[in-house]
Amino acid sequence: MQDHSNKTPENRIHPEMEEAVFGSAADDQEWFRANRSALVRFRPAFPDELEAQDALNQTFSNEKRCSLLQPGETGGWIAVVELFRLLGMDAWPYEGCRMRLECPPVIEEYIPLCTELVLETVRPLLPHLFPKHFRAGGQGFG
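-> structure tokens emitted (142 positions)
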């Protein structure tokens, strides 16, 4: 686990939650390394991952959980989107940039359809997330 001791006490989350966030990020990183053409990964959430992400969002940006769920619907799964690949950029040797969205469990036969739905949800956000890339005509971050 990375050392995050330079954070002030009010910016720290519970150690178990911190482990959930960084453990899930490392697991996703390995999965995307092994699946070099994948744009989206669907997986069950790690224990405490959703709560930890909520705590981080509240601490650093006051953002709400990114979710593909209807109000009152429970999920427990995560759709992980590799944003650099979605932009058509080869992130290697960088570790990529990923967005995580809470989602309902996905049955394997529906992964292609669910992938397209996730991508259609995320694509309109890209110009806001990477404005320099889009000002450069989609040819990098110049």
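The mean pLDDT is 76.
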